[in-house]
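ENTRY TYPE: paired fold submission
RECORD: A
CONTENT: sequence, then structure tokens
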Amino acid sequence: MDILVTGRHCQINDEFRERVTDKLAAVERLKDRVIRIEVQVTAAKKSSAGSTQVEITLRSKGPVVRAEAVADDKNAAFDLALDRLKAQLRRASDRRKAHRGLRPHIVELPPLAQPKPAPAPEIHTVAGIEVQGDGPLVVREKEFDTTPLTLAQALDEMELVGHDFFLYVDADTGKPSVVYLRKAYDYGVIHLNLN
């Protein structure tokens, strides 16, 4: 298991690196098949309350697990982030015990209908960036490999990543779906029908 500790706008000393390595050894017992753990410490440019943020990202053969915390110094922020990471891993472990067989076999989805080609969009430059059509300007684009999941599995992976929503392909219906956290700690699901 590799542990990578980086700092943004701050220096990371050897004492802090050793402390992080010692405390993260316990994570390997909670989550097997850990490949790499990334710890990023970010200090705010202006000093204020809660000026240090620590983000811990756990990369394994399964889903990515992420936790972050903010505190006055990096040791306190690291301890809070580690506690959150452990809580997420424990919840995921408890959910797996209740729902055996977390990952289904890979199911092939039916091919999508080919859309009619659209006319070539107009290209113009906005703030030094070429934009097609009249926007919106895409700032960041990501692409992930996935397998179809059940609703329970999607909820589990959403909690592990620590986001308020999770995009997945429903294993039962084959529809693209989004599960999201609503107010009062309940969940919502949006399914898309493909025409």
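RECORD: B
CONTENT: sequence, then structure tokens
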Amino acid sequence: MIYRLQLLFLSWLLFAGCSTMQVQSDYDPQFDFRTLETFAVVYPKKDTTVTLTQERIAEALVKQMEAKGYRKTDKAHADFYLLFHTDITDKRQVVTDYQSVGLYPYYGYRYGYGAPMVVPVQREYTYTEGKFIVDALNPKGNRIFWRGIATDELQKLKTPEERIAYINKVISKVLASFPDKKRN
């Protein structure tokens, strides 16, 4: 199962380009972000193998969190953990378009031609949607206090540099709403 998810996320990154990305976040309003200074990136526990994509995600998370003023540390000394998840879903969208059928050119009833008939035409579009989720967990009780989600239609990326740039872009947008340590 984990290999399927990793392959699907890698596919997401491979096919991500022209962005239709939507980002949202949520947090616990009772949580005091001012107490946070150090963090650790925690990999999904489903498998012990760390993939190239997971490494790139972890590096981007560290880079973005350090830019916000937090310090990376090991799991035992972290004030909070960052855990990431991916999901790939096949989507279907049905669009109704209206097309004219009849004699052309249409000059109206004045010249004896009838009005063109308009008929609905339905088209179905299928696409693959990728979802990237970052959770910030409080080690005391493993409770989530912040969550960021990016959803995007998959496009194709050809080079490792494009994939890394896309990962950085996604993580930057997802973590944009996470409070900076400097402002706490």
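NOTES ON RECORD B: The two ends are 40 Å apart (CA to CA). Confidence is low (pLDDT under 50) at residues 1-10, 12-18.
STATUS: closed
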